[in-house]
Amino acid sequence: MSNPDYIGFDLAFRSLSLEAAAELRVSSIFDGSGSGKGLALLFDALLRTEYAERVVLPSGFAYIKRKGTGLRVAMKMITAEAKAAATFAGVAAQTTLGLATTNYKIEGIALSQPVIAALLDIPISGQLSEQTFRGIQVALSERLPDYLESNEIQLGEYSEPAAIDLDKPGERARAINFAMAAIARRSSLSDALAQAPRSLSRETVIVTYARFTGSVDTSSTRRPSPTDAEAANLWLSTGSMGI
Amino acid sequence: MASEFPIDPSLDELGRIRALVPVLGDAARPVPLPALDGAWDIDFDARNRTSEISAKLGVSALLATESRINRTTAIWDALVGKRAILGTPEPDTVIYETFWGIGLRILLTFRSTEVSADASIAVVAATAEYRSLDVQYEIRSLGLGPRELAFILRRLPPLGRFDMTSYTVLETARQSLKASLMSALNQPDTARRLRPAIIKMAATPFTGELDEAAEYRFTMQGIAAGLGLADTLARQTKTQWTTIRPDQVRAIYRELVGGDGAPSTKAKTAARQWLVAG
């Protein structure tokens, strides 16, 4: 059995905003998600090669184009509050307890639809439940290993969300400065985003707000507290928040 | 200041560490792989870094905006390979040591407010178990292929929580891996499989995003006021901008103004707009 030049594998769990997931097209489950209360979650079990190409979209979101083989479990979790679960098990627990509604879709990288279907005892997409969660676990810990060991492995392209604005500190600083000024005025996140120049990184504005409010809900009209405004003002005049 | 960084092992077509190219440019080259003679080096250490920096280095996965704040990533390596140390570094050398290895990298991400940022892996596991924390864990490999991925998938619960049970399973897997990694290094394609995994740098190129933005804001204020570089820097001693680094202010000023002298009207206008509207 010949294998392409893999440099290793990733068993990785990622969470990002629904807006970022829709923009980055990491799975069709997020198409048209836009802003909203919820989170996009990805679990990758992938072999990958050296190939990587960083792509920055006009909106400021960035991804890395890679080549590899494996499975991606994409989940769209809708909650009253966009609180992130840090593990797949945490997502399943929140969903089972009725604190969230989560839809999943299994994507294959360099695996055909019939192959993916053969790895699963559950539908390729649907609602996460105890049964489907167990089905995903079986696919990952039993069927995928069997497949990897007994089949010729092909390569396929996939995209991986990337840290934003890494190569543009000036742009990042501009967006942080804008967000700090908006927090100091006690503008809500949705108002700040509506007023932000188009060239500004929305993601950086959201991150900066999240440091204060703890939420990434882009539709939130909740205003930062007077204490938050005071801290932002201190940063604007001294570069630190006195902590 | 920590100068040792686990990194994503991917190299670009020029042989530079891809994750570091945006911040270091051509200086992002690992120390070349030395001759593969003598004893192999082992790195089974755990290193804690902020999740923000780990994500920038491509080591850990990207987290949603709210969850990457105030989080620490513990990078728990089980690597064997060769440590390459630069004998005579040039004055502008940034990377002076590189560990080239194959093996397993386990990443644990936890909230720094719930577990101490410098906690050991065992303490993270115990805290996760007894306080029911939701600790994210990822497993990455360097230089390993489909057979090893199948092995790991069968033995470890990829979707499970990190607790004392998974800690024990992972620790056992790490220890049992040592012998098989050593024998893998005796294969003819070893040099090709070894990846740059950990580097030591003369100074960290990373700073917090807010501190970095503050340096821009401070410089913009000087430019908007029509101050030359020397007067802009002198403002620091007269004001409360204590976190900014003069070297960075100097670099930003020169980039935006084109020299050390007083800024042009155009530069002043641009700086004023930046400060007011973003």
Provide a concise account of the structure shown.
Chain A has 243 residues and is of the alpha+beta class. Chain A has helices at 18-24, 88-96, 113-119, 130-150, 169-184, 189-195, 202-213, 226-238, and strands at 6-17, 39-56, 62-79, 100-109, 125-127, 156-161. In chain A, helix 5 (169-184) packs across helix 7 (202-213) and helix 5 packs across helix 8 (226-238).
Structure write-up:
The complex is a heterodimer of chains A (243) and B (278). Chain A has 243 residues and is an alpha+beta fold. Chain A has eight helices and six strands; from the N terminus they run E-H-E-E-H-E-H-E-H-E-H-H-H-H. Chain A has helices at 18-24, 88-96, 113-119, 130-150, 169-184, 189-195, 202-213, 226-238; strands spanning 6-17, 39-56, 62-79, 100-109, 125-127, 156-161. In chain A, strands 1, 2, 3, 4, 5 and 6 form a six-stranded antiparallel β-sheet that branches. In chain A, strand 2 (39-56) and strand 3 form a beta hairpin. In chain A, helix 5 packs across helix 7 and helix 5 (169-184) packs across helix 8 (226-238). Chain A is elongated. Chain B is an alpha+beta fold. Chain B is built from ten helices and seven strands. Chain B is globular. At the A-B interface, strand 1, strand 2, helix 2, helix 4 and helix 5 of A face strand 6, helix 4, helix 7 and helix 10 of B.
